[in-house]
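On clarity, I found the account of how folds are encoded harder to follow than it need be. Since the whole study asks how a given chain folds, the encoding of that fold should be made plain. For the editor and my fellow referees, an illustration may be useful. An entry of this sort, consisting of the sequence and the corresponding backbone structure tokens, reads as follows:

:::
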Amino acid sequence: MTLHPLLAQLLMPDRSAVIFALKGVISVALALFVAMYLQLDRPYWALVSAMFLQIRPESGLVTEKAVCQILGSVLGGAAGILILAFFMPYPLLALACLTLWIGLNSAASSMVHNLNFIYAFAMSGMTAGLVVLLVMATPNLADSRAVFEIAQSRISEIAVGALCAMLVSQLLWPVTVKDSLRSHARAVINKTLEYLSLELDPDSTHEQRHQHADQILENLVALNDDSSAVAYEGPEGPGRSRAANLLCNKVMSLLAVTQIMGRFPRNHPDLVSPAFSKLLEDMRAHFIKIAEADNYEASYLEAQALRRALLEHRAAYVNEAAIVIRLTHTAAELVADLAMVLRAYNALENRDQTLLKASRLKTHRDPLIGAINGFRTAVVFMIGAVVWLNTGSPAAIMLMIMPVVFSVMFARFSRVVLTSILRRLLLGVVVAIPLSLFFGLGLLSSSSGNFESLMLILAGPYFVALLAIANRKTLPYGLGLCIPFTLIVQPGNHMTFNMEVATSNALGLFVGISILYWVFKLITPPDSQLMQRRLLKATARDLVGIDDQRRPENWFNGRMGERLLRLANYDQESGNPSRIMTDLGFTGLNIGHMSIRLRRRIKNHRNAVVDVKLAEWQQVLADTYLMSARGDMNSRFREASAGLLSAIYDAKAPDAQTATIEGMFERMALTFERTARTFHQV
């Protein structure tokens, strides 16, 4: 009989989960002690702050989240003060401005992928809400000094919790981001090498290749997200961050070039000569050897051996077609990128000052998604505001605050995943209500009320909740238990043990999370087809803008990373086995790299005429890409390619660099024709 994941996590936790929960309890205890010692107004917000920092236990991530949390709180506090400075006599206008501020923070959080940065926006909205609502709840006592004191208190409480969690993370059983980075990097490299072998294997299936590509993209995005936090881990941190960014960037180049090498023999076997076929076989054999190597030195030497083998193949060519010569150069570029990936992996542990700096993978910013997420969070807040205005109940403040935080934090997940998360979160809230009312308040009311009694009683529920948080699958249960438990019990120096108030707060939290669940069910992002088309149009815009970039390959790789992952996720959700939109995304990556390599080859042939023809060709390239996605072929592409080729040859006599340009144009034309035929048949 298989236990439910939550029961398995609570009854049979592993050593790391127990250590994680113990560190969390110590963080919470320290935060409560400091907040009570400083006589802060609401010490329980320090507990909430410390608890949120436990979601990822690595020291660098905790430090980064603490910084984001404090900065977000300061920004939110300032916004709350500003709103009240102008609209304190006009409560409806103040609530309207607060709703707008919360919606803007939610929309802005959709423009980043890193969870710590998302959390900063959540804290900004929450802190502004607390400042404005707590002042408006007692209008007879409100003045400029009271407003400032409330803002100062909220920021102080959140900062105390963040700093205590950061201190415990650094001193007790520290877990580093460096280890996580190396784990992600190993997974990326192993999957990439397997993918390289599969692309060159004539017997591999479409589904096998896509499974590996999806896993590579997921690990790349995770590696990219963690790379910013490793900079907080000592003097070696910034170097490891640069190495991780370089690794991500070069893996994107590998994916682009590998797709080129794999698709050509599959789609145009009549153009594959015996010599080129032998080259592909040797490449695949070397990839397998590199994957089997058990250390960096052996892998790197094997990559260099492959590079020499490619030069020998190239020297032995006799009367090969231009496209074959071009693809052989592409193979050499692939191996050069692979060697850089291996060096970057080694630099995660050992310093390598010769590595060049590379751009991070950028978050794909879609204003439509930001607008929908901002509107959805604003609706959640407005529903709570209407309830509060009509009832005047202080418990309605809970209905307005915590659902907003969860709305911002969970907005980036897909609809299916989000529904599952909110259900588990709601179940945790259901358990937290009786636990806090009868266990927490019941026992605390008969205790002496000092810090020791508080922690003796609270440690048990927090330990259980943290055990659940230690596992990603059960994290929503733990979050739904510990945060409401804290907000209902409200531990501090001057606890009232008022069951009526506690019950009202509990109902406010339950109703708020329930409203959040249904708002997310009713207000959904646009359908996947529209979002996929927007992703392709964004790719086409980047194809046009390549020539304006100082380091175009790094720039293009950075912008395509998460975009490809989103296309893959939309394809997976649709259940379409052909994965045609993901293929089109990779096609965009491929032709972008071909365009960048074209510029390298003609850099000595650039003049005013060539630049004009190149700009025209680049626009036609982007237009042809979008037309092929509709099943149409653009005859202008071959014409624009011929015109550019003629201008290049008129500018300067052909040389070794420009000899393969004709093959490059032919390969792109074949790619567009194949893509158009594929979409025309769908």
